[in-house]
Amino acid sequence: MTRPRDIHDYLDAFDDIPGTRVYTAARARMGYHLNQFAMSLMKAENRARWLADERAYLEEWPMTEEQKQAVLARDYNRLLDLGGNIYFLAKLFSTDGLSFLQAVSTMTGMSVEDYKAMMDAGGRSPKGVRSIKANREAQGAAKEEIR
Amino acid sequence: MTRPRDIHDYLDAFDDIPGTRVYTAARARMGYHLNQFAMSLMKAENRARWLADERAYLEEWPMTEEQKQAVLARDYNRLLDLGGNIYFLAKLFSTDGLSFLQAVSTMTGMSVEDYKAMMDAGGRSPKGVRSIKANREAQGAAKEEIR
Amino acid sequence: MARITAGIASSHVPLLGVAADTGKDRDAYFGPIFEGYDWTRKWIARPENKPDVVILVYNDHASAFDMKIIPTFAIGCGERYRPADEGWGPRQVPDVEGHPDLAWHIAQSLILDEFDMTIINEMDVDHGLTVPLTMMYGAPDAWPAKVIPLAVNVVTYPPPSGNRCWALGEAIARAVQSFKGKDLKVHIWGTGGMSHQLQGTRAGLINAEWDNMFLDSMIGTTQALRSIPHIEYLRETGSEGIEMVMWLIMRGALGRETRALHRHYHVPCSNTAIGHIVLEPVDGTVPASPTLEGNNAAAQGAI
Amino acid sequence: MARITAGIASSHVPLLGVAADTGKDRDAYFGPIFEGYDWTRKWIARPENKPDVVILVYNDHASAFDMKIIPTFAIGCGERYRPADEGWGPRQVPDVEGHPDLAWHIAQSLILDEFDMTIINEMDVDHGLTVPLTMMYGAPDAWPAKVIPLAVNVVTYPPPSGNRCWALGEAIARAVQSFKGKDLKVHIWGTGGMSHQLQGTRAGLINAEWDNMFLDSMIGTTQALRSIPHIEYLRETGSEGIEMVMWLIMRGALGRETRALHRHYHVPCSNTAIGHIVLEPVDGTVPASPTLEGNNAAAQGAI
Ligand SMILES: [Fe+3]
Ligand SMILES: [Fe+3]
């Protein structure tokens, strides 16, 4: 390849991974206050205030209404889309008493039981979830054969 | 030279400069709380408490008695010997209303007027204050000649 | 003089800390994981293997560092560190004692070697650091080794490259060799990984084949792991598999050739593939410092 | 696309801020100092020279960073920065507006190029950053350029080597060239110095001969400054002269060859020799990135 190799190519490749958001600068900027809010739940006194009135606590943070709604709904996929990072969001689901496995399973469209069963059986295979582009090309090739 | 080149040689060379303490790890560790105390004077409310009762304010910091005495005496050469760094100590003399020139002059054994006059005339020449070892050798050579 | 006598890699899944702290570490779920560490616990308790200091490479998971400040490489030069409150109260484990003499020596040496270190004197340490201590030492009243925390950013992209991590390990080895204090046995531990993805519809990804290739390549003289790009970790091992670049700091510090003393791999722990390996240097040679301040007569010669 | 159109070096003595803020900048003492900046103020006000963004290399003087955390290279990626209270109340100058788009792009690029950056999103900025703005722009209601603060540790030893600083400049140049946002004119400023010593019986040291050698060597194609060891700065230019390594980041970013547009040297300002130079790149070529993630097809190729 002759095009310049730089951060753009590096970042573009990340968009080729199915069902995955890499926590790049773009996401870090969008989610700045969302993540700082989540971080604040590391302090016991903040957790108490948060648990007493979630909405009121959220109002103290310059987050978008969309981010606030997604927090209240514990919609983790949405929160990742809005710039959340899983290690920051962990303070939120930990405060809810959820484990990583429970919280993570909510993002897969599987029930927590099915997700746990998949993990116990060896986890999700990387086959077919490595590259959106490769999947598309494979589909094209398959159609080609059928014709 | 065949001896290993590493941080030890790098640091040893610093001790060869007359009238100078380089702010190395060894000094940074010794002066940790002294410098953090000075840093605290960046906040207006801390400055007010400090000015109201210097000794009481100092007691809040895990500094050595020697460091506390040197702070109370504004003995900046001593403070540097005890691990102080000039940029941290600047918060102390700034709180006293002293300029860098006034505070720095106190370390030279010169009056502030004489020090200022020296600066206005072009500053202190590096001649003869580059190297303790070189000075010693030059003295030896001079004695040699006299004999 | 100090010398690196071994390298240990281990996952640092927070749930392992919970299991150990609540006495579940020998139940049906956690038993097979902890059993894989029994060999190491016995080995490390023997006087000839016991390290005086552990350089513990880990990543902070939004505990000591928030988004205000993100150091790529941060080295702890402080006297002690408290376990962090990660949202459910701090773990009830001993404080971590530092080794400021060796830590500052390493920090200073690394900067002369042109690594742009961030020096830390005060911070709390999270599961990334305390879980490996638990896995290796169980639940003592005090940790049996001093610890130099080396925190690596693997959360906000880009993390350091594999090559940079390996090179940092080599520079750490040079620094340890040139320490002039007490005779110290030093371990270097690389933590995190192996394959796991904690997000999105692809969550739960595990790649045992790739993980085992990675374990294989930690052994011997190959430097193949050094040039794996970030995108390969992401595709093959899930979005959080990138933590494995931290193992390369450990590997780089062991020098030209390693031998494996013990190896353990288990799926799953929560969402993660547990990997653990104990290595010793066979030929601990590392390249000389290429830098002026670290290595050139002119930089130290008197005028 | 963005391009580096000029490099400026300047001392950043806090007293210059005091003089400007209290209207003493044209008195008998300060007049000769500020007159040396008149050329630059006129030049930089012309539309063709006005930068959209200034990458402002400076050091924090125990303001944003205390001894708890000491980053070697910290880059500000935030939206805005307030002037710090350095012990006598904050300077009454405008807030400093950042340029997060370009700053994050540079930060990410530098890490791929194996610089171990610390990313900063919130901090106050001290005289090291605000005094150069005053010297170049006077006292406007708002600073006419966005600023990317690049804070370098030159207080706790060891600071980065001259070579490392120069190489960082080269990597910054590559990063600016590869920016894909709006067409931006970018300046890079190196601040601090020149000779001064603020401590001990040797305080007040000034070395006009060495300082002028340094100014001479910022011009043209020579890379002689790159390999000056720390000990030479200390011996020749006083304990605080080491700040001049920051000028080398600016010089490195200007590429192979520079031309001087303006030059000013004056002794004294308080304890310090004032140095100021305006450079433009003649041949802005910098070496290609030597790293895998930054430069190798394998790192980006789809699998
Ligand atoms: Fe982790
Ligand atoms: Fe300065």
Automatic annotation (TrEMBL), chains A, B:
Its EC number is 1.13.11.8. CDD domains: PCA_45_Doxase_A (cd07924). GO terms for molecular function: protocatechuate 4,5-dioxygenase activity. InterPro entries: LigA_sf, PCA_LigA, Xdiol_dOase_LigA. Residues 34-119 form the Extradiol ring-cleavage dioxygenase LigAB LigA subunit domain. Residues 123-147 are annotated as: Disordered. It is an enzyme of class 1 (oxidoreductase). Keywords: Oxidoreductase. This is Protocatechuate 4,5-dioxygenase subunit alpha.
From TrEMBL, chains C, D:
It holds the Pfam family LigB. It comes from the Bacteria. The keyword Methyltransferase does not apply. InterPro entries: Xdiol_dOase_suB. Residues 8-273 form the Extradiol ring-cleavage dioxygenase class III enzyme subunit B domain. The keyword Oxidoreductase applies. One of its GO terms (molecular function) is dioxygenase activity. Keywords: Dioxygenase, Oxidoreductase. This is Class III extradiol dioxygenase subunit beta. It comes from Sphingobium olei.
